[in-house]
Structure of Pyuvate ferredoxin oxidoreductase subunit delta:
Amino acid sequence: MKLRIGAIADPGTSVVNLTGGWRTEAPRIEQTLCIRCFNCVIYCPESAVHYSEERGIEFDYDYCKGCGICANECSGRAIYMEMEEK
Ligand code: SF4
Ligand code: SF4
């Protein structure tokens, strides 16, 4: 018997597994407090934090599971968690 629970069983299955559905709290950012340390990008277990010169730090809510690690590791205290309305 093949166990498939939590496994990346086939190529590409991590992309189609939208972990954003697990979320009860969502990270938000106050861009003016961001000091560009990029801890949020490095520590996010879902690679759901992105940065661009134009838009600063952004979250990919399709994959962000609301774990709060980014807020916890934020050097500038720019990220905070907010309860989501579903
Ligand atoms: S809450 Fe967790 S999953 Fe979402 S962006 Fe932050 S570290 Fe990533
Ligand atoms: S961890 Fe905080 S201060 Fe560092 S880049 Fe991310 S939002 Fe900015």
